[in-house]
Amino acid sequence: MTVDGKYKSGKSERDENFPVASRVIASRHRAPILAFYRFARAADDAADHPTLDAQSKLSILDALEATLLGRSDAVVDALALREQMRLRNLSAQHALDLLKAFRQDVTKNRYGTWDELLDYCRYSAMPVGRFVLDVHGEPKSTWQHSDALCTALQIINHLQDCGKDYRKIDRVYIPLDDLSARGLGVRDLGEPKASPELRACLQSLAAKTETMLPEAALLPSSVTDLRLAVETSVIVALARKLIGLLKTRDPLSESVHLSKPYAAVIAARTAAATVAGRAFTRSAFTKSSRMMPHER
């Protein structure tokens, strides 16, 4: 038995807002990260498909889980991740947490409060960073910083796509209480241009998301792998720029995405600064360790 792949969007890691297992990441770590991404992409495509009925979506997600856990060989994308987990002795829990979020996407299309949205991100976003950290052998103490970064990235995506999500799949991640506090309803997200009240609502959510970045910014310095430090520092920098756009532009009628050339410039500058900072820190530590106690 196999699962028909016609439901898939064709979107790949190259289409994402943020780097996914870029060439910065050590080659030995790229295969499991890409396998995890493609598993998540297959699940996301099923949950977000505009014409599949709910039962068909849930059946695909169930097939992904069954293949991941070795009860079936029905889904190619799950087979690849299963093999990488076997080779690296990695837990399936992060992928199972993602499936919980995608099942929720099928059955729940409104979020009442900010806390409700954060609880969703616990399953839809945090497992991604945690898996990457596990692949690199980083300690669980880094999860707190990664969780903040992944949650911020998820909410940035929700804000960017708030109009499209409502119009195409009738899903609203903007907390209903934030909308109602400004006299708004979900139908306002379907307008070609945001009203002043809706812009204020979305900008306030962008500002609230921005408060996660100081915690997220601790991630690059907390990981031991230099390449991962560079990758995560670039992601933090891109997140800052995108939040800046969301605080000044209307996602219903204006672009709130970074152009590829501009993102590349930000990435290059941030990567260089991160490498230089690591080199300086290492040099300072080496010098300090060679000093006699009375010289420190």
What does the model show?
This protein is mainly alpha-helical. The longest helix is centred in the last third of the chain and has 31 residues, at 260-290. It starts with 26 loop residues before the first helix and ends in a 6-residue tail after the last helix. It is globular. It has helices at residues 27-47, 54-68, 76-88, 93-107, 114-124, 126-135, 143-160, 162-169, 176-180, 196-210, 213-216, 219-222, 226-246, 260-290.
Helical coverage, percent range: 55-70%
Query: Could you list the spans in which at least 5 consecutive residues all have pLDDT below 50?
Result: 283-292
Structural class: mainly alpha
Helix-strand string: HHHHHHHHHHHHHH
Number of helices: 14
Shape: globular
Please count the beta strands (DSSP E, at least 2 residues each): 0
Summarize model confidence as the mean pLDDT: 90
Strand content: under 5%
Instruction: Give the biggest sheet.
Output: none
- State the end-to-end distance: 68 Å
Short description:
The protein is an all-alpha fold. Helices cover 65% and strands 0% of the residues. The protein has helices at residues 27-47, 54-68, 76-88, 93-107, 114-124, 126-135, 143-160, 162-169, 176-180, 196-210, 213-216, 219-222, 226-246, 260-290.
List its traits.
single chain, mainly alpha, 14 helices
SSE inventory with pairings:
Blueprint lengths: L26 H21 L6 H15 L7 H13 L4 H15 L6 H11 L1 H10 L7 H18 L1 H8 L6 H5 L15 H15 L2 H4 L2 H4 L3 H21 L13 H31 L6
